[in-house]
Design a protein that fits this description.
alpha+beta; archaeoglobus fulgidus dsm 4304 fold; 5 helices; 27% helix; 27% strand; globular; DNA-binding
DNA sequence: GCGACAG
DNA sequence: ATCTTGTCGC
């Protein structure tokens, strides 16, 4: 898929620049409307990155058929990053390689699912917001561990959820994807509402806590990194 | 004031 | 994220 505006020319080099860029980005997010309903979603793409020592990395994008959860297409990109991991600035570390992996796809998926957060973020500009704005593809995030918000434990049953709150504002949901298993944290990025994001996530989790999209992408980049290690 | 903090 | 042994359960 082709991605516009991914020019590395004005990529932030410092934390201050990155934070300023996020303040502007949050204005660009499309947080209106429900976005595509699960039944309208034909293909879903998952993205993930695996890191080596010294900045080496492999990014992967995997497109699944939303109905059968079958792999339709895969793309990997081996590269590196100089941006360190800083809580709140994950996007600047992962985005360039993720975009490169997405550009290797021949199709434009209907929805994008990534690791980490969307608006459940200190500046409402998590990785899913960046990706959604940059690609124009409806995008949301599914994270495994809590970040900067408060929430009540959702019900024990698969499908139950509770709101994620920052200063009284709802920024996502703690969603139980498997009965009796720790919840995941869903927050929208751009182009899709939390209801459809929640419903789609449940369709993507027939057997495991994490969405199949994430599992496939994780396995792909991890395997590729291992087989290319020194 | 200090620490914690998606991956 | 990554580094790691054994262990419980289907």
């Amino acid at each position: 898929m082709r991605i516009r505006g991914a020019s590395p020319g004005e990529w932030p080099a410092t934390e201050a620049e990155a934070i300023a860029a996020q303040e502007r980005l949050r204005e660009a997010a499309d947080l209106t409307g429900p976005g595509p309903a699960p039944d309208e979603v034909r293909t879903v793409a998952g993205v993930d990155v695996a890191y080596a020592d010294g900045g080496g990395l492999v990014a992967a994008a995997v497109v699944l058929d939303a109905a059968t959860l079958t792999v339709v297409e895969e793309s990997v990109h081996a590269g590196h990053t100089d941006f360190p991991y800083v809580p709140g600035l994950l996007a600047f570390r992962e985005l360039p390689s993720v975009v490169a992996a997405l550009e290797g796809l021949t199709r434009r998926p209907d929805v994008l699912v990534c690791d980490g957060y969307g608006i459940a973020h200190p500046r409402r500009a998590g990785l899913a917001v960046h990706l959604g704005v940059l690609t124009g593809v409806p995008c949301y995030g599914v994270a495994k561990t809590p970040f900067l918000f408060t929430y009540e434990q959702p019900g024990h049953e698969r499908g139950s959820w509770s709101p994620l709150t920052i200063d009284g504002e709802q920024v996502g949901r703690a969603l139980r994807t498997r009965t009796g298993v720790k919840p995941v944290f869903v927050s929208v990025g751009s182009g899709i509402g939390i209801d459809h994001a929640t419903a789609l996530t449940l369709r993507l989790t027939p057997a495991y806590r994490q969405p199949e999209t994430t599992r496939r992408a994780d396995h792909l980049c991890r395997t590729r990194l291992a087989s290319s290690a020194p």
